[in-house]
Amino acid sequence: MRYIWLLLFVFGSILLNAQSISELERQLREAETSIDKMNLNYDLAEAWLSSDVKKAVEYGKAAHTRAQELSNNGMLAQSSFLISQAYNRTRGDERKEETWLKSALGYAKNANDGDLIIKAVDKLSRLAISNDRKNGHRKAYQYTEEAFKFFSQRGRSISELDRKYDKRKSYREKEQRELISDLNQLTAELERLGREKDKLRDDKTVLTQRTKTLEQEKENIAQEKELVEQEIAVKEEEIKDISREKLQQKVLADARKHMIENLKNEKVIDSLNLQQTNLELQNATLQNEQSKYVFILMGAGVLFVVLLALLNYFRFRAKKRLSNKLEQQNQIIEEERQRSDELLLNILPANIAEELKEKGKATARKFNEASILFADFKNFTRISTQLTPEKLVEEIDRTFRAFDNIISHYEDIEKIKTVGDAYICASGLVNRKTIPSNLIKAALEMQEYLDDIKQEKIRLNEPFFEARIGIHSGPIVAGVVGLKKFAYDIWGDTVNIAARMESNCEPGRVNVSETTYRLIKYNYNCQYRGKVAAKGKGMIDMYYVQKELA
């Protein structure tokens, strides 16, 4: 049963390979450009290599011929190496294998393809040892020494790589120290605002206590008013009693007068007149006292009203002053809060900053449809030696400010960071499917801006920057690392491939991967570059973005 399954698997593999070969042959017949024919011949040679060596050699030589017509050293090296592998699978063709391997080594040197140089040297060394066990090791040593000289002459020594790494590391540490300094200043500013907030809270407490005191004073005045009103009521009762007594005295006087008239006694009349005079004097005295009490009560009432008005006026003035001061302090707090929010948004995306303010931490998130843009300057080290440090920093700052301004016009693009002369941004950091059309448009605008600056610098005979831009799409993880002095960053193999897109790009152009091309091919006209060797990733299909489709 096991052998049956094995036979079925072999038969299925052969059938699948035959289908792919037939599809490639159909595409070759329909191909119009020399580049497409060259790449399809190479793909057919690879497909036939495992099953039919003669056809692999035939298609490999066809790809080699097309590469010679196009002066494509990279494809010349790869097709030569593929043909040597085909001859390796047949007995008696060691001489042809060695010839094509030497050809692959020469073309790989012209193309500066380090990986293929190492492969060709390894195959030539093994072939030399197997063909001549006596002198083969010397020949293999010569191949290895030749490759070593090539790498040394091209400036790829370990010591120089270490120096470049140390220089880049020093620059990154300096940038990190500057970011830490800015964050410390922001933290100090937040602490100062916190202290002012506590002071305002204390002022509010004092104001509340003062308000309670005024309310208590108001209650005391109301109580005093009530007491005065009670005293006035008592005086009025007393006045009423006096009026009743006066009325009684008048009745008594009338009765006495009647008695005088009846008795006609002069003595009695005189006595009664004297008593009447006394009563009139008493009545006048009572009226004077009543007028005096009324005047006192009216004065007390007027004084009370004046005091109450003055109290309300001073209370209104104090409340207005405190309200104006509180409003000014609240305005200062709001302005400082807005400044701190703006500084935080310059470091982190808006949703991450909001989550940090609410929860004190931010959760890392995975995005399956993100697109990463890498931009790096050509010959940055050489240009930095031609400019003063101040001028160099000024030029980098102006360029990166222009890049920031370009991506600010697109809401779906988020700046990640700058590392030395590299600028990194991303789009699609949302939980839905997105198309990186705006990211491609921003990349073309960056190159257009650099080209305008280049023309101006050429006119002034000054050094200028040229950038390589690479874009790749795929899954990433993004988040804030650390508890203090945090920074927003992204991770994943997508980031590494985007960096390879940038390093394999020509200055002044935008290089995208096969994945990104499939997302934008209906919006942008792209030029297929073929399979390009990417360090650590093998052969990758790459495209140059030319222009936006109407």
Fold and architecture overview:
The protein has 550 residues and is an alpha+beta fold. Helix content is 72%, strand content 13%. Strands 1, 2, 3, 4, 5, 6, 7 and 8 form an 8-stranded mixed beta sheet that branches. The radius of gyration is 50 Å and the shape is rod-shaped. Residues 8-16 and 157-162 have low confidence and may be disordered.
Descriptive labels:
550 residues, alpha+beta, Serine Threonine Protein Phosphatase 5, Tetratricopeptide repeat, Alpha-Beta Plaits, 3 domains, 8-stranded mixed β-sheet, 15 helices, 72% helix, rod-shaped
Topology at a glance:
Elements: H1 2-30, H2 34-48, H3 53-70, H4 73-88, H5 94-111, H6 114-131, H7 136-153, H8 158-263, H9 266-347, H10 350-359, E1 365-377, H11 380-386, H12 389-407, E2 413-419, E3 422-427, H13 437-460, E4 467-481, E5 487-491, H14 493-503, E6 510-513, H15 514-520, E7 524-534, E8 538-548
Helix pairs in contact: 1-2, 2-3, 2-4, 3-4, 4-5, 5-6, 6-7, 8-9, 12-13
TL;DR?
The protein folds into three domains: 2-156, Alpha Horseshoe (Serine Threonine Protein Phosphatase 5, Tetratricopeptide repeat), CATH 1.25.40.10; 179-347; 364-548, Alpha-Beta Plaits, CATH 3.30.70. Helices cover 72% and strands 13% of the residues.
The end-to-end span amounts to 60 Å
Order of helices and strands: HHHHHHHHHHEHHEEHEEHEHEE
Shape: rod-shaped
Q: Can you say what the CATH homologous superfamily of the largest domain is? A: Nucleotide cyclase, GGDEF domain
What is the residue-averaged pLDDT? 82
